Amino acid sequence: MFTKDLQPLSIQVLSSEKAQRMAEFFSFLGDANRLRILSLLAEKEFCVSDLAATLDISESAVSHQLRNLRAMRLVNYRKQGRRVFYRLHDNHVLHLYQAVAEHLDEKDEG
Fold it and tell me: Which domains does the chain have, with CATH numbers?
């Protein structure tokens, strides 16, 4: 690409490998229950039973989704006695969730 005065732009093209990894990541987020879990964890820590009760889905389904979210490094956990509490992995995950939510809440300016 070139600027208006025909100088080459110094831009970095996304590599095919990284593009594939990003596509898989965004595809992974295409599950409503995973997004609902992330929306709750964006607010505070939850244990499986509280997530299940709040979302009105089985604890087994919540546990399955949390395993997937952990595998993608979107959530972490900590143990307190016999209970396990889940939270977002880091601020990157929170910012990603917030940015998408804000984008979808914007009114179309077109």
Answer: 18-105 (1.10.10.10)
